[in-house]
Design goal:
By secondary structure, the protein is of the alpha/beta class. It has 20 helices and eight strands. Bound molecules: iron/sulfur cluster (2 copies).
């Protein structure tokens, strides 16, 4: 059974649906395009799957116009996992050389370097390795290793202040493989996940900083038949568990808006933990009209920043305006990708870890 065969029913449900989730898709909202609505994209995949329409540049573009945010599923009676289904439809575009340029170049870099940045991750991990064992081995994710070392520093400092010491694990040089999954290179993703499972088996527990990596390990791997022996938890999960050991400090006199990152919230169900951490760190947390399962997307998933960069930034701009419309209120998120997207959209934003560090060191 091909990847698209596994999602045939989902494509059909959407194509016959009276667009019940029409308001939910951030890409459709940002582009004002029916072709990029959940219904439009899934109908394109359905027609291609049924042989009623050729897979061409236009249908290839449609199946790539999805962040995999899962927001549509929150309004779907069928609980259709549209992101999974559209990512699977991308597999055929890989085979036919019809991938958008940004997705093709990401895939080429990954194939060569085993990560989407092309950097030698083991050299970066070596700079972080601690000489003594720590209670919580940390898996920052390659995006933080390559582009955001400050976030790793902040996380380690906060964890120390919470009495939950973390140090970068030697297995952190392995990318979780999400870019392969999102690019639709699913055979390569399965092989990568199996290889990771073997390497990670030497570590009984990992604390993962990037919610996208934790979601990939805990949700996507099992969908591909790969089950890790390692217990994977997020940094916010572990810190919230250790909140009673956090310094007894008054909250910072600040108002921030909280963005539920898609992989952390809808993906892993972690809505309360980051809010409990925030409630200790600042005096006021502002919420958007739609939050938790119905919360908006920052545009960073599904390779959208590579395939439709301007649309991805517009998605982030709209979500920032939902969460914190006031210019002097910053957006806080526990997802490094979301933070980057808000910055690209011109909105001041903080990583939750950076904010917690300011609080514990205040
Ligand atoms: S995801 Fe559900 S609600 Fe949305 S178009 Fe498909 S079937 Fe309809
Ligand atoms: S998963 Fe998100 S981006 Fe993709 S179709 Fe659904 S709402 Fe739109």
């Amino acid at each position: 059974m091909s990847a698209t065969d596994r999602h045939g029913q989902a494509y059909t449900y959407c194509s016959f649906c009276p667009k019940m989730c029409r308001f939910a898709c951030p890409v459709a909202e940002a582009t004002h395009s029916e072709s990029f609505s959940t219904w439009g994209k899934m109908t394109a995949a359905h027609l291609v799957h049924e042989g009623q329409r050729p897979l061409d540049e236009s249908t290839a573009k449609a199946v790539h116009a999805c962040t995999g945010c899962g927001r549509c599923a929150s309004f779907c009676k069928h609980e259709n996992t549209v992101g999974d289904a559209l990512f699977a439809a991308r597999e055929e575009t890989v085979k036919l050389g019809l991938q958008p340029r940004g997705a093709a170049s990401t895939l080429a870099t990954f194939t060569q370097a085993q990560n989407p940045f092309g950097d030698e991750l083991s050299a970066l991990v070596a700079t972080w390795r601690s000489d003594t064992p720590v209670r919580y081995p940390l898996f920052p994710g390659c995006s933080s290793l390559v582009k955001r070392p400050q976030l790793i520093e902040d996380t380690i400092a906060v964890a120390r202040a919470f009495g939950a010491p973390m140090g970068v694990s030697r297995v952190a040089s392995r990318c979780c493989g999400y870019p392969l999954y999102a690019a639709g290179s699913h055979d390569a993703f399965r092989d990568h996940a199996r290889a990771n499972a073997e390497v990670l088996a030497s570590v009984p527990e990992l604390t993962v900083l990037d919610p996208g990596c934790a979601y990939t390990f805990n949700v996507v791997y099992p969908q591909f038949g790969v089950h890790l022996e390692t217990r994977v938890r997020t940094v916010v999960e572990v810190l919230e568990e250790n909140l009673e050991h956090a310094p007894q400090k008054p909250p910072l006199p600040e108002t921030v808006g909280y963005h539920d990152a898609c992989h952390l919230g809808r993906g892993l169900g972690q809505y309360d933990q980051p809010r409990q951490l925030l409630a200790r760190a600042v005096t006021r947390v502002q919420e958007a009209a739609s939050i938790r399962g119905e919360g908006g997307c920052a545009g960073g998933g599904g390779l959208l920043p590579r395939t439709m960069p301007e649309v991805a930034v517009e998605v982030a701009r709209r979500q920032a305006a939902e969460v914190a419309p006031e210019p002097d209120v910053s957006v806080v998120t526990a997802c490094p990708t979301s933070k980057r997207m808000f910055e690209r959209a011109g909105k001041q934003s903080f990583d939750l870890m950076a904010l917690l560090r300011r609080w514990v060191e205040s």
